[in-house]
Design goal:
It contains twelve helices and twelve strands. The chain is α/β, with parallel strands linked by helices. Bound molecules: beta-D-fucofuranose.
Length: 334
């Protein structure tokens, strides 16, 4: 730089002109970088993610996992909370298509009605990854892969445990069921798996089954109705911990002892659920892991690079009794 100061006027002018061109060039380049919205040639992957909502402890843990994993993986995350509405998810996905993100991922609130918007993403050449919940589209080419749990299996494990517990029951065992939101894959599948498993013992009967929308408030409200309408309830199967936790309030208010007068089985194994299980208020939980973030980011990198990925990736899960919950609780991450 010292040398430049000694340069003659014409050289200085040329140097100034060159630096103006250079700055202009960088600025123009910067404009086109951000102007596109999502596509950047800086090698950074942009993911548009549409989340179901914030209805449960599971969902909160899932959102945290996705946000943390994106930051860790250096993936730029555009995140939208659909507040349980399919129309909001469709809107968010259309926005991501317009913004030309590199990958779209979402957790579909219900199974049906996605073909049109998925086709739009495919036509725009943007790969889609389903996470947590799946869709019922016949055309599997509309998405690259589905990462999540086997919900039928969760329901089955819950039912099998009950069959074992009640194998010596001589009379009818009355079961009430709190379902997830209507049309959601985990609601449909957990119901199916549980129903199939308890068919092994004709004494086990579902006497009432209603959606509680995966929320505590929903669980409490529907359980109150169940208790009013049915004098003898032996078992509650709730499709998630939160509905089970809401139901605890209704059961206690009705003067019954949860975990003793009514056997309670749930799905998820989030901290509050595990605490209720350790305390003996719940009796059994089939685990469903919300920690899908790291695997999702890994898949996003692969599909972005054009690599083949398996069409279905299943989460590893277990089940918990009271004793096992006591043991697992201190190290539970969510
Ligand atoms: O079990 C429930 C949540 O889709 C697996 O959604 C998820 C379910 C989870 O609201 O707590």
């Amino acid at each position: 730089m010292g040398k430049m100061r000694t340069q003659s006027a014409p050289w200085r002018a040329a140097a100034v002109l060159a630096s103006v061109l250079l700055v202009g060039g960088v600025a123009a380049c910067g404009n086109s970088d951000t102007g596109g919205g999502g596509t950047k040639d800086d090698g950074k992957i942009t993911m548009g993610f549409s989340q179901v909502g914030a209805e449960s402890g599971w969902r909160t843990a899932n959102t945290t996992s996705i946000k943390e994993a994106a930051a860790e993986a250096g993936i730029e995350l555009k995140f939208d909370d659909a507040q349980q509405k399919q129309e909001n998810q469709i809107k968010a996905i259309r926005n991501y298509i317009q913004q030309k993100v590199d990958v779209i991922a979402f957790s579909p609130v219900v199974e049906s009605g996605w073909d049109t918007v998925l086709k739009e993403a495919k036509d725009a050449d943007i790969p889609v990854i389903l996470t947590d919940r799946s869709v019922d589209s016949a055309d599997k080419s509309l998405y690259k892969t589905f990462l999540g749990s086997d919900f039928v299996k969760e329901g089955k494990l819950a039912g099998e445990w009950l069959v074992e517990q009640k194998k010596t029951a001589s009379g009818p065992v009355n079961i009430v069921e709190l379902q997830g939101n209507t049309g959601a894959a985990p609601a449909n599948d957990r119901k199916k798996g549980f129903g199939e498993a308890i068919a092994a013992n004709p004494n086990l009967k579902i006497i009432a089954s209603q959606p509680g929308d995966f929320t505590r408030a929903g669980g409490k409200q529907v359980m109150e109705q169940f208790l009013k309408a049915n004098p003898k309830i032996d078992v509650l199967f709730a499709h998630n911990d939160d509905m089970g936790l809401g139901a605890l309030e209704a059961i206690t208010a009705a003067g019954k002892v949860p975990g003793k007068d009514i056997t309670i089985i749930t799905v998820d194994a989030v901290k509050d659920g595990m605490q209720a299980l350790a305390d003996g208020k719940f009796n059994f939980i089939a685990e469903c892991s919300p920690l899908l973030g790291p695997q999702l980011m890994d898949l996003a990198k692969k599909v972005h690079a054009g690599e083949e990925v398996p069409p279905r990736i299943e989460t590893e899960e277990t089940t918990f009794t009271t004793e096992q919950a006591k043991e697992a609780l201190p190290n539970r991450k969510y």
